[in-house]
Amino acid sequence: MTAQAAREPRTAPECAAAPGAVLDGPVSHAISRVARLHRIAAGRVLRDLGLHPGQEFLMMHLWDSGAVRQSELIKSVGLDPSTVTKMLQRLEQAGHVRRRPDPTDRRASLVEATDASCGLLVDVRRAWGELERQTLDGLDESERAELTRLLGKVEATLCTEVTRGGGECDAAYPGPGGC
Predict the structure, then answer these.
(1) Are 59 and 137 contacting, i.e. CB atoms less than 8 angstroms apart?
(2) How far from chain centre, in Å, is Cα 86?
(3) Where are the alpha helices (DSSP H) in 21-138?
(4) How would you classify residue 133: left for phi > 0, otherwise alpha for psi between -120 and 50, otherwise beta?
(5) 8-state DSSP, 51
(6) Cα gap 130→137, rounded to integer Å
(7) C-alpha–C-alpha distance, residues 39 and 17, integer Å
(8) pLDDT digits (tens, 9 = 90+) for 9-33
(9) d(CA 41, CA 136)
(10) Can you give 88-107 as a three-state secondary structure string?
(11) For 33-72, what is each residue's pLDDT tens digit?
């Protein structure tokens, strides 16, 4: 590094040029990059709450739905069963969830948010508010509305493709529940 370069003010890092293999998919490449950066930002705002990215989605579902079978929770979040099991183990150790046998089917487990986790709900909402601010900083209200509208259309299209292939799309949350 030259002495001149050391004195120049640092600017925001430049985004790397897209690899040649993605020239036919620039939007998909942009979505992948944004999703990766969003997950990193989410990790930073959730870290102080003792959560890892993804765990807040499990908690949101449990806060809204109440006790659910572990198999249904796995379907609703669309993650690998082993990933959800590990997340639940950590959340259970932290006192945020409890698992118990389903009284109607002893082979199944019910998962529910603990009363103690209801205080975490306020913190998660605050963290998601901060993540939203960071994500949308630099966009005005009309741009935010347009981005939301366009992402909704993209999501609907992808959901149609996923279900056509035999997969399932995330179901909408039923609304506020337990906390």
Answers:
(1) no
(2) 16
(3) 26-47, 55-65, 70-77, 81-93, 118-136
(4) alpha
(5) -
(6) 10
(7) 21
(8) 444 455 666 677 777 889 999 999 9
(9) 12
(10) HHHHHHCCCEEEEEECCEEE
(11) 999 999 999 999 999 999 999 999 999 999 999 999 999 9
- Work out whether the CA dihedral 103, 104, 109, 111 comes out positive or negative: negative
59: how many CB neighbours lie within 10 A of its CB?
22
Q: What 3-state DSSP class applies to 74?
A: helix
Q: Name which of 82, 84, 83 is nearest 97 in CA terms.
A: 84
Residues in the chain: 179
Q: Which one-letter amino acid corresponds to residue 20?
A: G
- Tell me if residue 60 falls in helix, strand or coil: helix
Q: Provide the whole-model pTM.
A: 0.75
Spatial CA neighbour of 29 closest among 37, 18, 38, 39: 18
Q: What is the largest CA-CA distance in the chain?
A: 73
Q: How far is CA 114 from CA 10, 12, 75, 84, in A?
A: 47, 43, 21, 17
Burial of 73 (0-12, 13-18, 19+ CB in 10 A): buried
Closest CA to 76 of 159, 158, 168, 162: 168
